[in-house]
Amino acid sequence: MFSRLRHLTTLENLPRECIERLLDRAITMRDACAHGTRKLDLLNGRTILNLFFEPSTRTRTSFELAARRLGADVINFDIGFSSTAKGEELFDTLHTLEAMHLDAIIVRHKVSGTPDELVRHAMSGVSVINAGDGNRAHPTQGLLDALTIRQHRPDFSALTVVICGDVKHSRVARSDVHAFTRLGAKEIRLCGPAPLMPDQQEFPDCKFYNNFDQAIEGADVAIMLRLQKERMSSIELPDEAAYFREYGLDSRRLAMAARGCLVMHPGPINRGIEIAPEVADGPQSRILEQVGNGVFVRMAVLGEMLAR
Amino acid sequence: MFSRLRHLTTLENLPRECIERLLDRAITMRDACAHGTRKLDLLNGRTILNLFFEPSTRTRTSFELAARRLGADVINFDIGFSSTAKGEELFDTLHTLEAMHLDAIIVRHKVSGTPDELVRHAMSGVSVINAGDGNRAHPTQGLLDALTIRQHRPDFSALTVVICGDVKHSRVARSDVHAFTRLGAKEIRLCGPAPLMPDQQEFPDCKFYNNFDQAIEGADVAIMLRLQKERMSSIELPDEAAYFREYGLDSRRLAMAARGCLVMHPGPINRGIEIAPEVADGPQSRILEQVGNGVFVRMAVLGEMLAR
Amino acid sequence: MFSRLRHLTTLENLPRECIERLLDRAITMRDACAHGTRKLDLLNGRTILNLFFEPSTRTRTSFELAARRLGADVINFDIGFSSTAKGEELFDTLHTLEAMHLDAIIVRHKVSGTPDELVRHAMSGVSVINAGDGNRAHPTQGLLDALTIRQHRPDFSALTVVICGDVKHSRVARSDVHAFTRLGAKEIRLCGPAPLMPDQQEFPDCKFYNNFDQAIEGADVAIMLRLQKERMSSIELPDEAAYFREYGLDSRRLAMAARGCLVMHPGPINRGIEIAPEVADGPQSRILEQVGNGVFVRMAVLGEMLAR
């Protein structure tokens, strides 16, 4: 017996068994697709709306594919991305969409906490799924990263993960830490230049590094974050080549990690800035596997929330 | 026996029995959805195209949902909204779309009369549905407003309606007047500042007011129109607060209307400009019911036009 | 026995029997639609993605309709058209899409050769269909033009075709020449102002003209190309009226062609620049037939590539 997920805004308070159930479901989805099933009819007649206030073709497409593979209809609600969409105006949009009898709203918004605000203001049975809010959370990314790791390293209690880059502004890093912590990871290391590192009190159970050589030592998984180039000016490193020297993942550094260390990145990658091409395309790279798992994890989340 | 609707560009000349049939159909659609039917297959294999020359995410989404709930495919033909799209260029686009064997084109255009131009130039059996043209007509809005009223006040012959705001530039007001007149409303009152009021000869059967306190007295329904903020400069009121004092609907004014007066608005609302938050969110507000009815009315229109 | 088409980037090396098989399939599709079949289920469960780096509502819509009529799902991957999307960045996008298990990618890109680059870099079984690349190829346009001609003039060996306008920059002209040559056309004439004509060595089997009166003499088919108005400055003709006088198709010129000469244009047409309204709308115009055939040809291509 379990209580079904109603909304998914963050992994922060999700019980371990719920995370594991979603990962198991994702595997079921993957296996069905691998055996030639092109389309399940779990969500026939359901309607899911993409409400993206920040552009993200990749994540939107991944959700759209997941929903359609389950037989749902998908509506892209094309907000002008310049729209501020906050406060009452945002809630009026929510209520309007609810009045149209949608089953789920997938929301991306630059302001942290917006998906929870929508949950608090929802009047009907609509489900809210966070596709990324500000620096705060990107829960399906956390799940797909956990799934990718679990396929290769099933025992999280033996796992050392390093997350490197602009951790401070990264919702991916936060959702990863939530997922891996809940699944019992042995050690999570956060690494980046000081101005791009969060407060240590936000992550009391993680180890902090500014030196990537030290951070990657013996790691089983290295997750490289995308560097927003506009952040370059705020850090002391003069240019992209310098960033790569200090925080990029190349073959030399990868050799310092544990044997067979998994290389991951939420994409899209900046080659030669946070990751060397030979590592991104090398045998230890799981980057494209992450993309494939993203669709299965989103199928799992939508299926759990919306199937009758 | 009745002649099936081929196109819907305005309610102006629609017979009363046709309007009533569409409202009855909308109720049938609503009841089917309320009893758990998620999808009808009335329009399986039909293709409907959204041709919006003005942006309108809400109306487009409502039509898209309606069409998909009936099993139709929907194509969004993304015209650059800067495109002038008039004359031969517009008709060439129409003929191109007809040559692709679409079943219906839903059109919104800032130039009044464009949908009728398309009907006149159509060469095939394609149906044209007006989703709003200039100041002229927004027939599905008129129908959904009539449906919303009928659910609460079935006897139109006893009905006093006040429509308040920028009546002059409002296609909603025009389609409402057409629908309510045809359905036999006892009295329709139009109210707004003089520069935003139409010529009286355009609405010979309506009563005209510049004073909202007088206009709302005893009304059974109050329809508040959205104020385009760029119109502010053309009227004598110095600012939004002044507009709200003169023409906004607040609790004090609502108390002057008939008991249980229905509060309606085509959305999106400007809180504190044309309507007070406590009225918009209050027990007499039918605004979200209007949104829900919009989908059912559009299902009714598409079903009548396109079902075999 | 034949080898099924895997990708379609150009008609240049397509065997005649393959072209003819695709045209035959297109006729089968057309006949099924003519007999009331609204939807085939040939591609149920398949997912096709539109990857357009240049805007083209008409071609995208034609592909989308074709795919949906065969029961496939269609995803529009909305690239910002300002994106340069080249080199590794483009291939990373390709690999990301492949990792999502798409069945086909329909690509339009301003750089010639991009679809072949995608074929070369594809890692999975995804099919690539060129919807127009630079000046190089627009293979489904070539097929639909061949189909339109074949319906009226089945014997290509007796056929004289003139293609007039900006041949130099036209991917339509190139794909037309490839198709008609392969199908055994008797004579292909290319005509335009000198600065808009390609090198003769690129088209060794075509006849070159700068005088349209001479080029159209006795032609069975006249294909008028769209003039990009921004090209006006590069040619010696001072304005649109002068271009029309020299290279436009009007009734006088059409009378010099063979009796019943087919008038074709890939659209959208510039009335009074490359074609006179009375010719575009006249009895010999096949322009709208081309549009309809475009959907059937694209159904044929998708069906051949993706049906199980």
From TrEMBL, chains A, B, C:
Q: According to its UniProt record, which reaction does this protein catalyse?
A: carbamoyl phosphate + L-aspartate = N-carbamoyl-L-aspartate + phosphate + H(+)
Q: Which GO terms describe its molecular function?
A: amino acid binding; aspartate carbamoyltransferase activity
Q: Where does carbamoyl phosphate bind?
A: R58, T59, R108, H138, Q141, G267, P268
**Taxonomically, which superkingdom?**
Bacteria
Q: Which residues bind L-aspartate?
A: K86, R171, R226
- Which PANTHER family has this protein been placed in? ASPARTATE CARBAMOYLTRANSFERASE, ORNITHINE CARBAMOYLTRANSFERASE, MITOCHONDRIAL
- So what does this one do? Catalyzes the condensation of carbamoyl phosphate and aspartate to form carbamoyl aspartate and inorganic phosphate, the committed step in the de novo pyrimidine nucleotide biosynthesis pathway.
Record-stated family: Belongs to the aspartate/ornithine carbamoyltransferase superfamily. ATCase family.
Q: How does it assemble?
A: Heterododecamer (2C3:3R2) of six catalytic PyrB chains organized as two trimers (C3), and six regulatory PyrI chains organized as three dimers (R2).
The protein's name: Aspartate carbamoyltransferase
Gene that encodes it: pyrB
